[in-house]
Amino acid sequence: MSTSSKLGLWTLTTVVLTAAAVEAAHFYFGKSEASIFSKSTQKSHVKSKDVTETVHDYSEELIKEQLARNYAFLGEEGAQKVRDQFVVVVGAGGVGSNCVASLVRSGVSKIRIIDFDQVTLSSLNRHAVATIKDVGVSKVECLKNHLLQIAPWCEIETVNELWTLDHAERLLLPGNPTYVVDCIDNIDTKVDLLTFCYEQKLPVISSMGAACKSDVTRVNIGDISTSDEDPLARTVRRRLKKRGINHGILSVFSSEKPDPRKAGLLPLPEEEFNQGQVDQLSALQNFRVRILPVLGSMPAVFGLAIATCIVTTVAGYPVEPIENKNRYKIYDGLLQTLAGQRSRLSVNNDQKVEIAISDVQYILEEVFRGKSPISGFSTRVTLSKWDPTKPLSLQNVVVMTKEEQKIHEERILKKGEPFSNVYSDEVLKLIEQRFAEERYYSQFR
Questions:
Q1: Domains in the chain and their CATH numbers?
Q2: Which of 227, 341, 428, 440 is deepest in the core (most CB within 10 A)?
Q3: By the 8 A CB rule, do 209 and 232 touch?
Q4: What is the pLDDT, as a whole number, of residue 26?
Q5: What pLDDT, in 10s, does the model give residues 351-376?
Q6: What does residue 396 show for φ and ψ, rounded to 5 degrees?
Q7: DSSP letters for 36-52
Q8: What b/e readout covers 316-346, taking b as 16+ CB neighbours within 10 angstroms?
Q9: Residue 220's beta-bridge partner residues?
Q10: Secondary structure of the chain: what % helix, strand, coil (to 5)?
Q11: pLDDT confidence tier of residue 396, bands split at 50, 70 and 90
Q12: Residue 101 belongs to what H/E stretch?
């Protein structure tokens, strides 16, 4: 046999022996691993097929191993407090599904999910776990089906039903939940839910609008009274004030400013208007029919923020959210513009103003919607006294741009010209309308 033939035979033999050794190792270690897993899960009776119901006798050893990073982060006592929570999540869309998924992964052992809707193809850009196979399945069952594969020990109760105030006690109170999460996008239902939780003293955290948002650095966690730049939050605040609720409800919101260059509510096709009775197009009475553009990652950010807030709060982990982190300096600056005007108009340069910084937020965001009623601009804004014959008050301060303030100060406050010489009837009517609204809402503040 030639040298080259011997070398080829030796190479072939080596390959065969190596392959046999690898297969033997795979068989041995695979069998050992399967044996170990089988022993570890002997008590829990977990099979290789999908888990369809909660496994109540799941191995505590496996649970702690799965939650090892949580225990390391929160400590034994903190992690156990998280596991003891019973959270009710109302709304299982983009925000709600991400919140539920994160709570389950964080160790919360009991969750009730309430939603009437089904997974659609358009849900897949933001839903936490849904796949194409889930299209047509109820959102609550979709979550349960997937999350039981992650945490078989978690008790996931599903309610495929629209939450309404008439059934609030039946849907929320059984089992004494420790937290309620509001992920509803219908204003009437949202306000009813928050009012019910407030009156029942149920800890609740509410998600404001994630649609049309894109700047994650503007996401805040704080009392609903500090929320701004969000039409949904503004409407919810006003309706809650009518019910005597000014604060005391935690919320996640974005302070991202609206911009005509950014996404907005999509118009309804003209052919739908031509058919009449547009309100009949909604799936349910009083629900919106127009589409809100959603960047899929933003509902996830909101949902994860809520879950993180709950986990750290109940665990006693030291976190100090900066409420309204993007706006405080703006309000302080606006107050200074009013004080500066007072100084310029005062004989003795008095800068004292009868308005607090909390009033500045209210004037800017609530009364004047964050923009000048004169030009509609929301940049380089200031505050100005309106009527020189009346004392400074919440009904005698107007948001203006710096240029508008200069003109108003010179012509109205100093020279005393008639308002009609400076402003159009449309502007004067709008400002009077804003003052009238303030007079109405002031009784609820």
A1: 60-315 (3.40.50.720), 328-444 (no CATH)
A2: 227
A3: yes
A4: 47
A5: 678 888 878 988 988 789 888 999 99
A6: -145, 35
A7: HHHHHTTTTT--SSPP-
A8: eeeeebeebbbbeebbeebbebbbebbeeee
A9: 253
A10: 50, 10, 40
A11: very high
A12: helix 94-105
Task: Show the tokens assigned to 5.
Answer: 């033939």
DSSP codes of every residue in 186-220: -HHHHHHHHHHHHHHT--EEEE---TT---GGGEE
Q: Tokens standing for 178? A: 């420790």
Report which residue type is found at 382.
T
Residues comprising the chain, all counted: 445
d(CA 171, CA 113): 10
CB 178 within 8 A of CB 314: yes
- The structure tokens listed for 18 are 């190596």
pLDDT classification of 320: cutoffs 50, 70, 90 = confident
Beta strands 250-254 and 86-90 are: unpaired
pLDDT digits (tens, 9 = 90+) for 119-158: 999 999 999 999 999 999 999 999 999 999 999 999 999 9
Determine how many CB atoms are found less than 10 A away from the CB of residue 16. 10
Q: Are strands 204-207 and 250-254 parallel, antiparallel or unpaired?
A: parallel
Is 0.70 surpassed by the pTM of this model? Answer: no
Burial (CB < 10 A; 0-12, 13-18, 19+), residue 166, is: exposed
What sign for the dihedral angle of Cα 23, 29, 33, 35? positive
Distances (CA, A) of 164 to 168, 172, 174, 189, 192: 6, 11, 16, 7, 8
User: 271 is written with which tokens?
Assistant: 């052919």
The SS3 assignment for 135 reads coil
Mean pLDDT of 273-301: 61
How far apart are the C-alpha atoms of 156 and 144, rounded to whole Å? Answer: 6
- The secondary element (H helix, E strand) that includes residue 59 is none
